[in-house]
């Protein structure tokens, strides 16, 4: 028997309709790519979202079409989130830090019909445009005055497109399971893989994110997503601010400590989220300048493990509460947040800190368990550790058009295997102890150890190479290259680094090269990364001190 409740679909457009109607004067403030601070309201934003929806339909965008963005955290990007999904198309926010080959792969794989881009990314797209046969046109996110000379074909000016359209629209009706947006993750080896979100999953994830046991966001908050809008939709913060009608402050392309501080201070931000590297730069600036945080009440930090020293500095020196959070692209992304339960909240600070080091607490909405190597569930005793498996309405059920990856990362009964290895306790506290993925996370961005190793063994003096992530105070992790020299070869560190220079991105280059007689191997002949990490556990990178 079905319940007799309305089947009212959970559609993203409802969030902004609500914000414009009931919080119409709440502000969205952005540092624009052109320079000045831009300021308008949810009512203004929704008028423009409707114009943009019309513009997309005039371009011929239809239900299910993919429309890509290459953009920083700004108001035009915000408008695209809502307009693209509003017309039933799929907003595909692309991480511009990926390599050219990865970008070409994902644009072609997603079959993006149009690309909207900030001025900053014109040269990037010009360089790869000839490899994108399916892209029908490019829209530069600026006004006529700032339109650049470009070799991009079929170029439009964003503001001109909007100006030609009315600010009323009849949004198409569709099922809540309709795809709304997508993101590719490069967090594992091989080609990037697509997570395809739906209106329903986005709506439910947003309700989770604003919830008191996650980020605890209400209308009085002033939100600052330092997490990029191209990285899992800035962890859902633009949707969360819209759902509750809270002021939203967007940092544009400026993530240095001084620029971030300026906005936090001037706009009286109460809650900011981002990766540890951003907060490291901010804390450094604040310390040097002798400043404080008169308005900031909390930070949500995740993407990489939050060092305890950062939590202590925020909380003890500046009275800013830290919510350690964990998640991934495949999970929309938030899975856990270190919000205290009643028992932990009552503990002395020192004991509570132990829980803040953990990645967070399982909250209703994300089911979680840990699995041993045999696939059997391990006890929730805070001691046993195994791969984290998750299930829930904002977790992918498969990758977009990628059967192989979908097969290998799900259990037979539909749990998603995260690749993170963790302990879980009886109260749902999860602590990551390792990653079964061999990738390195530097400043919130992935470096593939396999790609680096493959490039390194191309050097004639290198017989075998392994790359592991080593702790780094600023970037969280940086690559260390461990090399077994070829017989009689005389490969030197600088020589190998120079050799890698034109094979990988500059920021991928290892911070150090160490020579060993042999590398540990697993039974199947693979390099035993766990054993290697253990071997180098007391090693410190020269760049880390
Ligand atoms: P991404 O899909 O790029 O957002 O990366 C997700 C991965 O980042 C997770 O599977 C973890 O390996 C890592 N990660 C995210 N948050 C944390 C955290 N709080 N502590 C440690 N690792 C994290």
In short:
This protein is of the alpha/beta class.
The gyration radius over C-alpha positions equals 23 Å
Helical segment count: 18
Report how far apart the termini are. 65 Å
What is the top-level CATH class of the largest domain?
Answer: Alpha Beta
Order of strands, widest sheet: 2-1-11-10-12-13-14-15-16-20-19-18-17
Describe this structure in words.
It is a single chain. The chain contains 18 helices and 25 strands. It has 545 residues and is an alpha/beta fold. The protein folds into three domains: 13-254, Rossmann fold, CATH 3.40.50.12780; 365-435, Luciferase, domain 3 (Roll); 439-544, ANL, C-terminal domain (GMP Synthetase, Chain A, domain 3). The strands form four sheets. Strands 2-1-11-10-12-13-14-15-16-20-19-18-17 form a 13-stranded mixed β-sheet, sandwiched between helices. The chain has a seven-stranded mixed β-sheet with strand order 7-6-5-3-4-8-9, with helices on both faces. Adenosine monophosphate binds next to strand 14, strand 19 and strand 20.
List the topology elements.
Elements: H1 12-22, E1 27-31, E2 37-41, H2 42-58, E3 66-70, H3 75-86, E4 90-93, H4 100-110, E5 112-117, H5 122-128, E6 137-140, E7 155-157, H6 158-163, E8 179-185, E9 193-198, H7 199-210, E10 222-225, H8 232-235, H9 237-244, E11 247-250, H10 257-266, E12 271-274, H11 276-289, E13 298-302, H12 308-318, E14 321-327, E15 334-337, H13 342-345, H14 349-356, E16 360-362, E17 367-371, E18 385-391, H15 403-408, E19 416-424, E20 429-435, E21 440-442, E22 445-447, H16 449-456, E23 462-472, E24 476-485, H17 493-500, E25 512-515, H18 529-535
Parallel strand pairs: 1-11, 3-4, 3-5, 4-8, 5-6, 6-7, 10-11, 10-12, 12-13, 13-14, 24-25
Antiparallel strand pairs: 1-2, 8-9, 14-15, 15-16, 16-20, 17-18, 18-19, 19-20, 21-22, 23-24
Helix pairs in contact: 1-2, 1-9, 2-3, 7-9, 10-11
Residues 185, 187, 232, 302-305, 324-326, 328-329, 333, 359, 418-420, 432, 435, 441 line the site of adenosine monophosphate.
